[in-house]
Design brief:
alpha/beta, two-stranded antiparallel sheet, 9 strands, 14% strand
Length: 333
């Protein structure tokens, strides 16, 4: 299962080999951007969102002296990526961790500074493929949505236990849902009768709660609510806000960061984080810019790059991608 730009979902056979079921998004562009930094001897790169290991495998194949640190909170993703990267085992450190733990992981491994960091944000192909994870609104499944299914509250817990005001906040802040209050009123009525447990129950509720105009435009009317619940359950936006600055701090001069986002909330955080360090900190009226006020980063992309038609045809998930990249050009003051 992959997600298109409109939020609709495309079925995929989860039984296929890992390398066949995972097509890395914008792989050629990611390699092009990271290559100059990773040519250095004994370079270290961090794949902060390892998933099924497609980008990691390509990087290791391309750079024979590269050491890769791969992070993922999902134990099944780590298992499959370990199998996929087995032939590179001597150059790989795979760690079960959320990507906002990147700084601690690098400190524990004593692998600072690094030459590259890659983020491929959002829900992974593995998580969409597995019905029991509940990420998809196209198939009936328990409302789970945890990227690490062994810990923390599920989407059902959020729906059934959050106060109405908190649920409105989740849908508005994380799903940009204009009908948040109407949806929450319907959820509260429903959960008084019985807890909401499955994706089909939630989709049916949304179809009844949303006005006809909302159902006719903007793709599947369930996508914003499912996105909001997923972000809340996994703390995704807070993790991005922590991880991207930490990744920039970990870069050596000449090191590069590449971030792929799939919706505007993610991209906004990334844009601000990269932008803040690509500008001088000198006052506007300063006649001479001191070295410590020079930008730390040089942006490598003009705005957010998107996939072209051929990329989208080969990989529907790429339809909504926004890629930003930067290079570290000086040490922090």
């Amino acid at each position: 299962m992959r997600t298109t730009a409109e939020g609709d979902e495309v079925a995929e056979d989860a039984a296929r080999p890992t390398s066949a079921r995972h097509v890395p998004v914008l792989l050629a562009r990611v390699l092009e951007l990271l290559d100059p930094a990773l040519a250095a001897p004994d370079a270290v790169v961090v794949d902060a969102t390892l998933g099924l290991g497609g980008h990691a495998e390509a990087l290791l194949d391309r750079h024979e002296h590269l050491t890769l640190v791969g992070l993922d909170r999902d134990p099944e993703a780590l298992r499959l990526a370990t199998e996929r990267l087995a032939r590179h085992a001597g150059r790989v450190h795979l760690v079960r961790a959320v990507f906002d733990e990147l700084a601690d992981v690098l400190d524990d491994l004593r692998l600072r500074p690094v030459r590259g960091v890659l983020f491929d944000l959002g829900v992974s192909s593995l998580q969409l493929d597995e019905d029991e994870r509940g990420f998809s609104y196209a198939r009936d499944a328990p409302l789970d949505m945890r990227m690490d299914p062994t810990t923390g509250p599920s989407a059902a817990d959020v729906l059934n236990t959050y106060a109405p005001g908190e649920l409105v906040r989740v849908l508005r802040d994380h799903g940009e849902e204009r009908q948040a209050r109407r949806i929450v009123e319907a959820v509260v009525r429903a959960r008084r009768r019985a807890p909401l447990r499955t994706s089909a129950e939630l989709v049916a509720l949304l179809e009844q709660a949303l006005p006809a105009a909302s159902r006719r435009t903007g793709g599947n009317p369930a996508k914003r609510t499912f996105q909001a619940l997923r972000i809340e359950v996994n703390g995704e936006l807070d993790a991005i806000a922590t991880a991207v600055p930490d990744a920039m701090d970990a870069l050596a001069v000449g090191g590069r960061i590449v971030v792929m986002s799939y919706q505007s909330l993610e991209d906004r955080i990334v844009k601000r984080a990269l932008g803040a360090r690509s500008r001088t900190t000198a006052p506007p009226d300063m006649p001479v810019v001191r070295p410590e006020d020079e930008p730390e980063l040089a942006l490598l992309t003009r705005g957010a790059e998107k996939a072209d038609e051929s990329e989208i045809a080969a990989n529907p998930r790429a339809a909504s991608v926004r890629l930003r990249a930067a290079e570290r050009v000086r040490e922090a003051a």
